[in-house]
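Model: You mentioned two targets. I'll fold them one after the other.
Researcher: Yes, keep them separate.
Model: Target one:
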Amino acid sequence: HAPKDEIEKRLLFRDFVLIAANTCCRVGELWQLRWSDVLKYEEIKDGKNGAKTLVKIQIRAETSKVQKSRDIICRGGEYFQRIYSRSRFTEPDDLVFAFESADKILAKKEFYQMFSACMKTLEVDMKSRKISLYSLRHFGISCRLRAQVSVFDVAKFAGTSVSMIEKYY
């Protein structure tokens, strides 16, 4: 059995992966996300799969690569709620992915190590396929495009330009 501390790290990492894939945020934007940036939850009925919890988050200009703020509404509110219920750091100014203190996320090195371990378990060659944590953003954007979300809406949602999406996807 893994020590409690290790289990908590793994649970935080699991929710980070799910949030990254659903929000299409850049890794650095998520690492700087504070509880005050989680603006609203809304449960919606999904006839096929039951209820879903949407979440509205804001990416502040000072934490965005392109220095522009944006609001994101997406699935995955339950992942934020799970983190909140387990965390000791839930004040508005505390980081969502805080682990040892309110203003310090789980070590970036540990995020990368856990991601590498997951890929190894799945027998994915990260090097040859050029996969990294940032790939979760690409996965989320690709899923939106496959779901026939307008390229304009995806660009706005992801905080990038239509030309960047057209160039890479």
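Model: Target two:
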Amino acid sequence: SLGVIEQLRLELPDARYLELVHRLDKETSGVLLLALRRSALVALHRMLREGETRKFYLALAVGEWRDAVRHVRLALHKTTGESGERRVHVHEDGQHAHTVFRRWRVAGGFSLLEAELKTGRTHQIRVHLAALDHPIAGDDKYGDFELNRALRKQGLRRMFLHAARMELMHPISGVPLVLEAPMPDDLAGFLATLEAGHAR
């Protein structure tokens, strides 16, 4: 019933200043950065804007991804429907968007990819993969809805997208940071099932 930042403020009442540095889609797990000082927030926003951070995600794409490494540069255009829902699609007049995909492994008709964001557009990884006919397993907005229904029965109850790692300099001390979040049990378990040859 509460957003992430509201919940954290309840958990950390002594933190006088607490703000989200960036957001994750509702179903995306992983590294989420928060600032405890306004000076840190301003510095981190500048670093994100100017490409001084590196963000890596793990995504399970439908189908067999052929390339070991692929740079995807497809411009993205954002629209808002009457209900306020945001939707993004590939359009030449959209904002420049660049994702580097690295194939980690292929199993059971799916490909586990590392996605490095070179730009930070809304739903960037999801839309880039969907546009290439490799939507993210479990994506209820841009994915294969029929397949998603079948995957739910096999144990995948959400989108398989995980913010695995961020690399940046500490905004105050300048010390290099590597922030990592292990793959959560639900995604790791589904992947293990796939690799054992029981899914699809």
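Researcher: Noted. Anything on target two?
Model: The chain has a mean pLDDT of 93.
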